[in-house]
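Researcher: Please translate sequence to structure tokens.
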Amino acid sequence: MTLRTRSTAIIGSICLVASFAVATASADESAAPGPAAAEVALTEVATAQNPTAGTAGPDDTVWIAERAGTVRVLDDSGLGEPVLDISDETTVDGERGLLGIAFDPDHTHFYISFTDLEGTSTVDEFAVQDGKPDPDSRRTVLTQTQPYENHNGGDIKFGPDGYLYIGLGDGGAGGDPHGNGQKLDTLLGKILRIDPAGGDPYAIPSDNPFVDDPEAKDEIWAYGLRNPWRFSFDSGTGDLLIGDVGQNAWEEIDWAPASSKGGENYGWSQMEGTHPFEEGTEPENHVPPVHEYDRSGLACSVTGGYVYRGEAIPDLVGTYVYSDYCDGTLRTLQIENGEVTGEGDLGVEGGEVVSFAESSSGDLYVLAIGGAVSRIDPA
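Model: Translation complete:
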């Protein structure tokens, strides 16, 4: 592993070091090492301005979000000029900015997740015309006020069911001072599930887990999360994997099968991973992480990734690839039926890894906040 001297300016602006974490200890210390790691290399394909998120676009392109508010398209020619610029509508204070992007399944609508100038988490929709977001079609789908400038979450993904999933952190500060993680009357500290095409501004899927609970928000899919900075769906199985950033001791990967009906309670802020947080008591319905690790090494903040389903690296197929903002090592998990059967790393380091992106053909890209956009290739 190569030690890096990180820019104080970058760390001060993104504030991820203080709020993330990943190291080497597993929730299951007896987990086998698993099969030999695939031999890979990182190929830097572009340099962006503080990339924060990416998503598969039309024609096997990958769209890249830059934190200050621009979106650019990566294709075989490299990274193009911005196709969208909201830089006058957001701020890079704290952990704010343009934090997530997603296409609907048929690529006719494009969604952005950002914090506005007041810090309010906002999801907007654009119709796609001539390969670009149409500014005249823009509409706001969902907003959530934020009490603090950290733990905004901000990731957005369409699930295999065609609904939009939205990750929101617990509201910030430290230790969840408002108890939002365990409250069902707030959207903070949750994964939400909505149908943006089914209503104005959106519809609630009728099978969401809390639609019949008058004391809970209908949008909630899962709760008990501190800062689900990056989550993904396995394109092969439909399983959901969440990288939830820990407080100061434990980082976790949460898992739910494609058959889940939602309603999982991942424990925060009563629990940090499998450990009671401060004087917390484990909830009876706590769903423990599939994997956790402490901060005994250089790691400081989990960056959730993807299960690899591409064709270029056969030995990597079915392996969950994720990283850590501070040590940058590309780590791996083999998961079967909700149990880790092997863990390791790929022997490569991607810098200050802040996000991953998956192309429509299954290639995985690694985004470093310093600007590097790299593809995981066979060695």
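Researcher: Any highlights?
Model: The longest helix spans residues 8-14.
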